[in-house]
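Incident log, support desk, overnight shift.

02:14 A customer reports that sequence design results differ from what the structure should imply. Their input is reproduced verbatim below. On-call engineer (initials T.W.) acknowledged and began investigating.
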């Protein structure tokens, strides 16, 4: 796998203004309307189906193909795939859509690395994810963690769009997590709580297919179940941070202090990596995220005192 990705050419150039950047820092998120062309969206949808069919390989938690199933039947089996870029050249390419990278450099800085991709399929009836902050899972040293949320379907309140609490990133507080006990409503990830906001402070982020949403790693956000009668709410979500910052994502090896811990399964998407001399490690593997529909059991992770996810 390459250690750097060249941005995909933007056929819909998007201007990022100083007001856009100001609003991002004020609210914690930014919407780039229809940043991708529909043929790009269609390409990513087709690749999603290929991944769920196992055409790019069988990985942790993916159901073995049985043959004769329609695309919709195949897609309905999987809520989310972590690290699809590890097996898909298409998903790898879209770690760096040019419009998204342009916005990232405006809010983070010139040097940016990517450490994670997640492909959500969320068919009708599938659960959402409870209130959380991405920084809880991926701890950066400089609060530069940023999610890039690429909509592959129109995302609406009905089918489980993103909800945010604007400005909730500004205190820089990581709120504790607990098991939510809301089987069928949310997946197996934990739920943030004890924060001084209510659901009345939340706003839905409804966007058209091809749009990109950037959001700060401290921003409280969630999604509700897909309550549409049919269809999907597919989205590719990648996570980025400043390349100048070390990434203590996992417990360091014996003899390495936490201050020097640096997760190196990363790809450079803009500028230069000042730690390039460290090299990279192909460490994390694709796996299916537990949906919790049949109960979570040992799948519940990332609660207080738990092991950080990859």
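02:41 Re-run completed on a clean worker. Output:
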């Amino acid at each position: 796998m390459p250690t750097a990705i060249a941005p995909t050419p933007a056929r819909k150039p998007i201007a990022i203004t100083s007001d856009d950047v100001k609003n991002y820092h004020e609210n914690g998120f930014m919407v780039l309307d229809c940043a991708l062309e529909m043929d790009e969206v269609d390409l990513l949808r087709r690749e999603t189906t290929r991944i769920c069919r196992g055409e790019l390989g069988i990985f942790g938690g993916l159901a073995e193909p049985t043959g004769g199933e329609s695309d919709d039947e195949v897609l309905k089996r999987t809520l989310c795939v972590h690290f699809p870029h590890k097996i898909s050249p298409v998903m790898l390419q879209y770690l760096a859509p040019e419009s998204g990278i342009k916005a990232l450099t405006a809010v983070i800085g010139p040097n940016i690395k990517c450490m994670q991709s997640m492909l959500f399929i969320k068919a009708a009836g599938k659960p959402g994810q409870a209130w959380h902050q991405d920084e809880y899972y991926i701890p950066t040293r400089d609060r530069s963690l940023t999610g890039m949320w690429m909509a592959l379907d129109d995302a609406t309140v009905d089918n489980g769009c993103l909800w945010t609490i604007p400005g909730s990133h500004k205190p820089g507080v990581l709120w504790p997590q607990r098991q939510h006990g809301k089987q069928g409503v949310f997946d197996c990830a934990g739920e943030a709580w004890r924060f001084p906001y209510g659901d009345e402070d939340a706003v839905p982020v409804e966007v058209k297919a091809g749009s990109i949403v950037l959001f700060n790693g401290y921003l409280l956000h969630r999604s509700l179940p897909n309550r549409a009668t049919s269809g999907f709410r597919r989205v590719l979500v990648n996570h980025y941070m400043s390349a100048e910052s070390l990434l203590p994502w996992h417990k360091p090896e014996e003899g390495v202090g936490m201050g020097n811990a640096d997760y190196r399964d990363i790809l450079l998407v803009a500028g230069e990596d000042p730690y390039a001399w460290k090299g990279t490690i192909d460490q994390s593997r694709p796996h299916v995220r537990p949906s919790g529909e049949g109960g979570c059991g040992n799948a519940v992770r990332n609660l207080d005192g738990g092991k950080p996810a990859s």
